[in-house]
UniProtKB/TrEMBL annotation:
Annotated keywords: Membrane, Transferase, Transmembrane, Transmembrane helix
Gene Ontology MF annotations: transferase activity
Residues covered by the Glycosyltransferase 2-like domain: 8-165
Source species: Chryseobacterium defluvii
InterPro entries xrefs: Glyco_trans_2-like, Glycosyltransferase_2, Nucleotide-diphossugar_trans
The protein's name: Glycosyltransferase involved in cell wall biosynthesis
């Protein structure tokens, strides 16, 4: 049986300190794979070092990790795609075991899980990063009924079907969140493989901003809930508006029974408006939920027909 064609995807921005080792490690542990380094406007020697190490180097001028990965997905043709960061924080020595699990279980996406063995917590010294990982994971697992252990890992393996059907409008580091929710929404086969995460070597600087990027991820999560679970999103909004409308209605109703007249007419009008908006919100959720069901059916048909 012919071996699958494997493409290693390494999006890079100023990773001169570590990119050489990442490329060489893959050449050691996965010698038959094609290693692609896509440079995203690096100001250091990332490109030269990657070429010297034996990688196929290409460029993406639009800034943002998601922009780079979308271009990789569009341009590279393979049977299996391994995405990894160029900062040497993920172990390459276990990649063959990850590939074996991916193939054996016919996965659509396999995620390198840094959290279940606490290696990320031990190695990463930024407390808010650990908090953010757990927060996003718990939110997604609750809203999407999943049991994923690591939502934000940048170490993943994808099938060709996944890569050629995936689409999104994001641009930056929200990519991993989007990949996870996208897979859950469309019912794709996701598995995880426990890895030993290691922190960046001294001198290597993270491009993540704890608070601004964390806010973007949370914002993306709620936008995706609105997109993928409209009945839940608009139903919750409708319930809140309806309850607030009823609370505002208590005063004019009490006035009417006490005086047979409503003195706080603006309050009554406001409460009625809230109730109407609540009903409209619920109706919107119902309509969008039916559209989402049709979209899922069309996606599965298109997905199954992808060669």
């Amino acid at each position: 049986m012919e071996s699958p064609k494997i493409a290693v995807l390494v999006p890079c921005y100023n990773e001169a300190l570590t990119i050489g080792k990442v490329v060489k490690d893959f050449k050691t542990y996965l010698p038959n794979a094609d290693i692609y380094v896509y440079d995203n406007n690096s100001k250091d020697e990332t490109v030269a070092i990657a070429k010297q190490a034996g990688a196929i180097v290409r460029h993406e001028k639009r800034q943002g990790k998601a922009n780079v990965v979308f271009k990789m997905f569009r341009e590279i043709d393979a049977d299996m795609y391994i995405m990894i960061d160029g900062d040497d924080t993920y172990p390459v020595e276990c990649v063959q075991e990850m590939v074996d699990q991916f193939v054996e279980n016919n996965c659509d996406m396999l995620v390198g899980d840094r959290l279940s063995n606490n290696s990320y917590k031990k190695e990463n010294k930024r407390a808010f990063h650990n908090f953010g990982n757990n927060l996003v994971r718990n939110l997604i697992n609750v809203f999407f009924g999943s049991e994923l252990k690591d939502i934000l890992s940048g170490y993943r393996i994808f099938s060709k079907k996944f890569v050629k059907n995936y689409s999104s409008s994001i641009k930056g580091f929200e990519l991993e969140t989007d990949l996870s929710i996208y897979s859950l929404h469309y019912g794709l086969a996701i598995e995880e493989y426990s890895i030993d995460y290691r922190d960046r070597p001294e001198g290597s600087v993270s491009k993540l901003n704890t608070f601004s990027d964390g806010f973007k991820v949370i914002k993306l999560f709620f936008n995706l809930v609105r997109l993928y679970k409209p009945l839940l999103f608009f139903g919750m909004l409708s319930l809140v508006l309806f309850i607030v409308g009823l609370l505002f209605m208590i005063v004019p109703i009490r006035e009417y029974f006490q005086y047979q007249y409503v003195y706080k007419v603006p309050t009554l009008i406001f409460s009625i408006m809230l109730t109407i908006v609540a009903l409209l919100s619920f109706t919107t959720g119902l309509i969008l939920d039916n559209i989402s069901i049709i979209d899922k059916k069309n996606f599965k048909r298109r997905y199954n027909n992808t060669k």
